[in-house]
Amino acid sequence: MTPAAPSTDADAKAEATARDLAAKVTAGDLRALARAITLLESGRADHRAQAEALVRALLPASGTSIRIGITGIPGVGKSTFIEAFGLALVERGHRVAVLAVDPTSPRSGGSILGDKTRMEKLARSRNAFIRPSPSGGTLGGVARRTREAVIAVEAGGYDVVLIETVGVGQSETAVKDLVDMFLLLLAPGGGDDLQGIKKGIVEMADLIVVNKADGDLAPAAERARRDYASALHLLRPETADWTPRVVKCSAVTGDGLDDIWKAAEAFRKATGASGRFARRRAEQARAWMWNEVNETLLGELRAAPAVRRALADLEPAVAQGTVGPGEAARRILATFAGTGGGSNEGT
After folding, report:
1. Which of 19, 76, 103 is nearest to 248 (CA)?
2. What local confidence, expressed as pLDDT, does residue 346 receive?
3. Which of 174, 207, 211, 229 has the fewest C-beta atoms lying within 10 Å of its C-beta?
4. What is the residue range of 140's domain?
5. Residues 143, 262: one domain?
């Protein structure tokens, strides 16, 4: 189905600007790619039409990479691993994009965004692109616009996209709706390893990698590999047509990095042959759409003047215990529905 033609001069201008920026991105202009992602991540209402037009322009050139999500507990060495793995892939002739999500402070709203500093060697490679982004309070270990950033880097010619999440947690699930392969990074010698990681995150993993398998930790890494390999036999695989594997590696020495890429290639071949790779991408696109519906509705609800007026009375009442949270929620939704579901109703 052909997209509708721009209905206003503003829409036409947004389309033209998006096409120009998209052409520069697909031509390999790194500054244009950075500007594109900045636009896609913008929360300004006047930027959304441009961002949507940009996604439309980039989509035909996207979808050719393998998307690998990488998570792990703090201290496991995610950044060190990603740099070593990325450099190994560059040496193989790949172009690697790293989208790293940093947690946003609930107090200041800021993020450190230090991943480019931690991956200095990879950042200097002409065939690598590193983009740290704030989570913006979005749950699930990824930023709200990470999906759109993936489209941009794929259109820019990067055939391997590594997405570093904020870390293992109760909500570390949204990344599964974003990547082709989910990699869980573990460190040996951390005590009771099998109890230290939530069962759910292990069940989600397509590949478990025990990092730091060098020096004095080498024996512990092998024990951890065997323990997790045994544990996986007790779990139902998350992805049909693929049996999760456990490998060990050293981001310092480079040992085992080739095994990880071979596993990724085997994963893509197995799921591609069965059609599951394409079906997962289609399911992810639908999940992306509904996530946008939910996020947009919540934003419209919070912005509606009538809702804000109702909240001035309802929030204190809920805090004081004179109105139940459920009743307050229903009143808020009824108020929003009464405005026509938007924020531009009359006063």
Report:
1. 76
2. 45
3. 229
4. 62-273
5. yes
For residue 317, give the CATH number of its domain: 1.10.287
| Residue 100 phi, psi dihedral angles, 5° rounding | -105, 130
How many structural domains does the chain have? Answer: 3
Q: What is the pLDDT of residue 96?
A: 98
What is the pLDDT, as a whole number, of residue 288?
86
Q: How far is CA 29 from CA 66, 131, 155, 188, 247, in A?
A: 21, 15, 11, 41, 37
Quick check: is 345 in a domain?
no
Burial (Cβ within 10 Å: 0-12, 13-18, ≥19) of residue 11:
middle
- pLDDT score of 134: 64
Residues 144 and 158 occupy one common structural domain? yes
Q: State which of 23, 40, 59 marks the end of a domain.
A: 59
**pLDDT range class, residue 191, cuts 50, 70, 90:** very low
> Using CA atoms, how far apart are residues 29 and 39, in angstroms rounded to an integer?
15
Mean pLDDT of the chain: 84
User: Is residue 1 situated within a structural domain?
Assistant: no
Any idea what the CATH number is for the domain that residue 44 is in? 1.20.5
Contact 171, 140 (CB under 8 A): yes
Q: Do 79 and 115 form a contact (C-beta atoms < 8 A)?
A: yes
CA 254 – CA 213 distance, rounded (Å): 10
Spatial separation of the C-alpha atoms in residues 295 and 289, rounded to whole Å: 10
Residues 178 and 245 in one domain: yes
Q: What is the pLDDT of residue 13?
A: 79
Asked if residue 221 belongs to a domain, the reply is: yes
Same domain, 299 and 179: no
Encode pLDDT of 146-182 as tens digits. 889 999 999 999 999 999 886 655 445 667 778 999 9
> Residue 307: what pLDDT?
95
CA 119 to chain centre: 18
* Whether the predicted pLDDT of 236 surpasses 60: yes
Domain co-membership, 149 together with 19: no
